Amino acid sequence: MTAAAGRATTVLRALFALLTAVHLGALLVDATTVVHLTKPALMPVLAVWALARGGPWPLPAALLCGCGGDVLLQIGGETAFLAGMGCFAAGHLCYLTLFARAGWRWRRTAPWAAAGYGTAWLGTVALLWPGLAAQLRLPVAGYSLLLTVMALAALGAGVRTGLGGALFMLSDTLIAAGLADWPRPPVPQFWIMATYIAAQWLLTAGATRDAVARPAPERALVSP
């Protein structure tokens, strides 16, 4: 990385951190206008940072899909929610493409991890199912299955990406809990966004290591 690129990544990382702090702070004090202005800016800044770090195309594509989902969820309503879920699903497919390009294969996934993630998906869907609106049940179940597969792949790809995938699952579980009228922590949007932003950051930071920028068949995305 050149000196100019290094400076650019430092500035972009600082901007992302600032936007994150402002956005989460605005959620805590219920500053709606600030929330609506900062949320759509988060993932594009992270995508540019990923490009500056040499990340391959599926990575910024995944982040921009996340931006589309963020915007649609802000609009509100069932149609926008389903469209937003579709955007996030496209982002998960981009992450799976990224992991495959980097040399990750399913045979690297520990059986206990596959069993644990599968059980978590099945249990969550079973518990949420009665509380979801009938028209949302199958879309939510299908989306959560894709998210679980992405999180499992992220775990197989490396420690940092694995933690990012797990936090993504937690964030979306909090959203689904709201749809099913489950009890949630105070200021649930703060926790949803805090875990979501952390997830995207960890996935991006892990995937922009040299092992992704110069993929090799037998190398994981991140070092343990």
UniProtKB/TrEMBL annotation:
<protein>
    <submittedName>
        <fullName>Lysoplasmalogenase</fullName>
    </submittedName>
</protein>
<feature type="transmembrane region" description="Helical">
    <location>
        <begin position="80"/>
        <end position="100"/>
    </location>
</feature>
<keyword id="KW-0812">Transmembrane</keyword>
<dbReference type="Pfam" id="PF07947">
    <property type="entry name" value="YhhN"/>
</dbReference>
<feature type="transmembrane region" description="Helical">
    <location>
        <begin position="112"/>
        <end position="133"/>
    </location>
</feature>
<comment type="similarity">
    <text>Belongs to the TMEM86 family.</text>
</comment>
<keyword id="KW-0472">Membrane</keyword>
<dbReference type="InterPro" id="IPR012506">
    <property type="entry name" value="TMEM86B-like"/>
</dbReference>
<keyword id="KW-1133">Transmembrane helix</keyword>
<feature type="transmembrane region" description="Helical">
    <location>
        <begin position="145"/>
        <end position="170"/>
    </location>
</feature>
